[in-house]
Protein backbone atom coordinates (compact mmCIF):
# COMPACT_ATOMS: atom_id res chain seq x y z
CA UNK A 1 0.00 0.00 0.00
CA UNK A 2 2.85 2.40 0.78
CA UNK A 3 4.35 1.70 -2.64
CA UNK A 4 1.12 2.78 -4.29
CA UNK A 5 0.91 5.93 -2.17
CA UNK A 6 4.45 6.86 -3.21
CA UNK A 7 3.16 7.24 -6.76
CA UNK A 8 -0.40 8.41 -6.12
CA UNK A 9 0.39 11.36 -3.85
CA UNK A 10 2.83 13.08 -6.26
CA UNK A 11 0.49 12.31 -9.17
CA UNK A 12 -2.52 13.80 -7.34
CA UNK A 13 -0.46 16.82 -6.31
CA UNK A 14 0.71 17.31 -9.91
CA UNK A 15 -2.85 17.11 -11.25
CA UNK A 16 -4.10 19.56 -8.61
CA UNK A 17 -1.28 22.05 -9.26
CA UNK A 18 -1.71 21.74 -13.04
CA UNK A 19 -5.44 22.49 -12.88
CA UNK A 20 -4.87 25.28 -10.35
CA UNK A 21 -2.26 26.83 -12.65
CA UNK A 22 -4.55 26.63 -15.67
CA UNK A 23 -7.45 28.24 -13.77
CA UNK A 24 -5.31 31.05 -12.37
CA UNK A 25 -5.55 34.39 -14.23
CA UNK A 26 -2.32 35.52 -15.88
CA UNK A 27 -1.85 38.50 -13.56
CA UNK A 28 -1.96 36.28 -10.44
CA UNK A 29 0.98 34.10 -11.54
CA UNK A 30 4.12 35.32 -9.76
CA UNK A 31 7.73 35.43 -11.00
CA UNK A 32 7.16 33.63 -14.34
CA UNK A 33 4.57 33.59 -17.12
CA UNK A 34 1.80 31.07 -16.67
CA UNK A 35 2.99 28.89 -19.57
CA UNK A 36 6.39 28.55 -17.87
CA UNK A 37 4.68 27.39 -14.69
CA UNK A 38 2.73 24.77 -16.66
CA UNK A 39 5.99 23.40 -18.09
CA UNK A 40 7.65 23.40 -14.66
CA UNK A 41 4.72 21.52 -13.12
CA UNK A 42 4.63 18.92 -15.89
CA UNK A 43 8.39 18.44 -16.39
CA UNK A 44 9.34 18.32 -12.74
CA UNK A 45 6.30 16.43 -11.57
CA UNK A 46 7.52 15.84 -8.01
CA UNK A 47 9.07 19.24 -7.21
CA UNK A 48 7.17 21.44 -9.70
CA UNK A 49 3.75 21.27 -8.00
CA UNK A 50 5.27 22.06 -4.63
CA UNK A 51 7.09 25.09 -6.09
CA UNK A 52 3.86 26.25 -7.77
CA UNK A 53 1.87 25.95 -4.54
CA UNK A 54 4.58 27.71 -2.52
CA UNK A 55 5.72 30.50 -4.84
CA UNK A 56 3.81 30.47 -8.11
CA UNK A 57 0.49 32.05 -7.27
CA UNK A 58 -0.42 35.29 -5.56
CA UNK A 59 -2.42 34.00 -2.61
CA UNK A 60 -2.59 37.10 -0.42
CA UNK A 61 -5.76 39.17 -0.72
CA UNK A 62 -5.24 42.84 -1.61
CA UNK A 63 -6.01 45.67 0.78
CA UNK A 64 -9.60 45.88 -0.51
CA UNK A 65 -10.29 42.41 0.85
CA UNK A 66 -11.00 40.81 -2.52
CA UNK A 67 -8.69 38.63 -4.55
CA UNK A 68 -7.69 39.81 -8.03
CA UNK A 69 -9.75 37.04 -9.63
CA UNK A 70 -12.86 38.24 -7.78
CA UNK A 71 -12.18 41.77 -8.99
CA UNK A 72 -11.93 40.51 -12.57
CA UNK A 73 -15.18 38.60 -12.25
CA UNK A 74 -17.02 41.70 -11.05
CA UNK A 75 -15.56 44.08 -13.66
CA UNK A 76 -16.02 42.03 -16.79
CA UNK A 77 -18.55 43.06 -19.36
CA UNK A 78 -21.92 41.76 -18.35
CA UNK A 79 -23.30 38.87 -20.31
CA UNK A 80 -26.60 39.53 -22.01
CA UNK A 81 -29.07 36.78 -22.78
CA UNK A 82 -29.58 36.26 -26.54
CA UNK A 83 -33.24 37.25 -26.41
CA UNK A 84 -32.29 40.57 -24.74
CA UNK A 85 -29.32 41.35 -26.98
CA UNK A 86 -30.40 43.73 -29.76
CA UNK A 87 -27.34 42.92 -31.92
CA UNK A 88 -28.10 39.20 -31.80
CA UNK A 89 -31.78 39.80 -32.60
CA UNK A 90 -30.79 42.05 -35.51
CA UNK A 91 -28.48 39.35 -36.87
CA UNK A 92 -31.34 36.83 -36.64
CA UNK A 93 -33.63 39.24 -38.50
CA UNK A 94 -31.01 39.74 -41.23
CA UNK A 95 -30.53 35.99 -41.61
CA UNK A 96 -34.30 35.50 -41.74
CA UNK A 97 -34.63 38.11 -44.49
CA UNK A 98 -31.87 36.40 -46.50
CA UNK A 99 -33.57 33.03 -46.06
CA UNK A 100 -36.92 34.46 -47.15
CA UNK A 101 -35.33 35.97 -50.27
CA UNK A 102 -33.73 32.63 -51.17
CA UNK A 103 -37.06 30.88 -50.58
CA UNK A 104 -38.92 33.35 -52.82
CA UNK A 105 -36.34 32.90 -55.59
CA UNK A 106 -36.59 29.14 -55.25
CA UNK A 107 -40.42 29.21 -55.38
CA UNK A 108 -40.35 31.51 -58.45
CA UNK A 109 -37.92 29.14 -60.18
CA UNK A 110 -40.12 26.17 -59.27
CA UNK A 111 -43.24 27.90 -60.68
CA UNK A 112 -41.37 28.77 -63.89
CA UNK A 113 -40.26 25.16 -64.32
CA UNK A 114 -43.79 23.87 -63.67
CA UNK A 115 -45.20 26.25 -66.31
CA UNK A 116 -42.56 25.14 -68.82
CA UNK A 117 -43.38 21.51 -68.09
CA UNK A 118 -47.13 22.16 -68.56
CA UNK A 119 -46.45 23.93 -71.88
CA UNK A 120 -44.37 20.99 -73.09
CA UNK A 121 -47.05 18.50 -72.08
CA UNK A 122 -49.86 20.55 -73.65
CA UNK A 123 -48.07 21.38 -76.89
CA UNK A 124 -45.90 18.39 -77.52
CA UNK A 125 -47.54 15.61 -75.58
CA UNK A 126 -47.92 13.45 -78.69
CA UNK A 127 -44.32 13.74 -79.87
CA UNK A 128 -43.07 10.78 -77.90
CA UNK A 129 -42.98 7.29 -79.46
CA UNK A 130 -46.27 5.49 -79.30
CA UNK A 131 -46.19 1.89 -78.36
CA UNK A 132 -49.45 0.49 -79.65
CA UNK A 133 -48.20 -2.97 -79.09
CA UNK A 134 -47.64 -5.51 -81.84
CA UNK A 135 -49.16 -8.87 -81.17
What does this structure look like?
The chain is an all-alpha fold and 135 residues long. The chain has 2 domains: 2-74, no CATH class; 82-121. Helix content is 64%, strand content 0%. It is built from 5 helices and no strands. The longest helix has 39 residues, at 86-124. Pfam families: PLDc_N (PF13396).
In short:
The chain has 135 residues and is mainly α. It is built from five helices and no strands.
Helix content: 55-70%
What's the helix count?
A: 5
Separation, N- and C-terminal Cα atoms: 95 Å
Q: Which structural class is indicated by helix and strand composition?
A: mainly alpha
Low-confidence stretches: none
* Mean pLDDT metric: 80
Q: Give the biggest beta sheet.
A: none
Morphology: elongated
Keywords: Cell membrane, Membrane, Transmembrane, Transmembrane helix
Membrane topology: Multi-pass membrane protein
Domain Cardiolipin synthase N-terminal: 12-56
InterPro entries: CLS_N
